[in-house]
């Protein structure tokens, strides 16, 4: 069972949040990080938002909040800026439309503190809609770097918290990638590392009309395939990777809502009918 360390015993956690015109959702993100019992700093890198984000940040009374607002080259550039600023022994990246579940994150951090051989930890996620209603909970299997490489799935990356020394393996995100920079980053960061999983949800992942997961999913999948093939050491590995990707693109959209996490229309309708009943 994971424990929660007292603040005096716990290492510093640095949480990096890239933001650009997310004033509608950012308060939930800020509140969720501020609620952590673990000593932390929250670094928000805003890309010169014009929707009230700056005014929101100016109005926060949180001594652990560090923020800058200036033009940047996008989300990946913002995360790299934040990682360079971060001073914590532990590091994490939470987007401006997502929110931690503080008690679960504190327990995960307690597990890291009690197990120094563990390099990183991750957990389950709740998918929530634009109004904050949970419509799906995903509990990932135990971590396997090889499975993550070959199949590019099964890791809830927004929940990952890792030790600073791992940065030597992945000093920064590759800004060449539009939407799969996290996949490339975590492949490098977690190679050869013990990564533990907790089964409870650590984060509410917001799925809304403007989220990159909804608008850029095929860009993400295509980039991830390019990254995966770059790791392949021989023709057989490339054939396995291409075969799996081709099969899931041909089959999964026919039998599920993949690559999107929200339920199919029939499921939504049945849920509404059941709710009314």
**Strand residue percentage:** 15-25%
Unreliable segments (pLDDT under 50, ≥5 consecutive)? 265-277
Alpha-carbon Rg, integer:
19 Å
Q: Tell me which CATH architecture applies here.
A: Alpha-Beta Complex
Structure classification:
alpha/beta
Distance from first to last alpha carbon: 39 Å
H-E order: EHEHEHEEHEEHEHEHHHH
In total, how many domains does the architecture comprise? 1
CATH superfamily: Spore Coat Polysaccharide Biosynthesis Protein SpsA, Chain A
Number of separate helices: 10
Q: What's the CATH topology label?
A: Spore Coat Polysaccharide Biosynthesis Protein SpsA, Chain A
**Main sheet properties:** 9 strands, mixed
Portion in helices: 25-40%
Multimerization status: single chain
Written overview of the protein:
The structure is a single chain. With 277 residues, the chain is α/β, with parallel strands linked by helices. It has a single domain (13-276), classed as Spore Coat Polysaccharide Biosynthesis Protein SpsA, Chain A (Alpha-Beta Complex). The chain contains ten helices and nine strands. Strands 1, 2, 3, 4, 5, 6, 7, 8 and 9 form a nine-stranded mixed β-sheet that branches. The radius of gyration is 19 Å and the shape is globular.
Summarize the structure.
The chain is an alpha/beta fold. It contains 10 helices and 9 strands.
List keywords for this structure.
single chain; 277 residues; alpha/beta; Spore Coat Polysaccharide Biosynthesis Protein SpsA, Chain A; globular
């Amino acid at each position: 069972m994971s424990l929660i360390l007292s603040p005096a015993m716990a290492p510093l956690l640095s949480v990096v949040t890239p933001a650009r015109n997310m004033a509608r959702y950012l308060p939930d993100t800020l509140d969720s990080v501020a609620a952590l019992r673990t000593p932390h700093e929250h670094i928000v890198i805003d890309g010169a938002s014009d929707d009230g984000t700056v005014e929101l940040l100016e109005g926060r009374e949180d001594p652990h909040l560090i923020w800058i607002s200036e033009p940047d080259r996008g989300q990946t550039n913002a995360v790299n800026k934040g990682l360079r600023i971060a001073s914590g022994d532990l590091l994490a990246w939470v987007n401006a439309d997502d929110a931690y579940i503080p008690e679960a994150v504190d327990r995960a951090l307690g597990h890291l503190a009690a197990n120094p051989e563990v390099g990183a930890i991750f957990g389950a996620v709740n998918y929530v809609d634009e109004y904050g209603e949970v419509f799906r909970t995903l509990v990932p299997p135990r971590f396997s770097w090889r499975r993550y490489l070959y199949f590019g799935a099964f890791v809830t990356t927004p929940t990952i918290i890792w030790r600073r020394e791992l940065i030597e393996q992945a000093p920064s995100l590759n800004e060449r990638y539009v939407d799969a920079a996290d996949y490339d980053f975590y492949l490098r960061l977690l190679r050869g590392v013990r990564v533990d999983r907790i089964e409870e949800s650590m984060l509410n992942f917001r799925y809304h009309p403007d989220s990159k997961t909804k608008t850029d999913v095929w860009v993400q999948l295509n980039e991830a395939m390019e990254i995966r093939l770059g790791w392949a050491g021989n023709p057989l590995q490339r054939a396995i990777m291409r075969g799996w990707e081709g099969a899931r693109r041909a089959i999964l959209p026919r039998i599920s809502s993949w690559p999107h996490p929200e339920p199919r229309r029939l499921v939504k309708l049945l849920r509404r009918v059941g709710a009314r009943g």
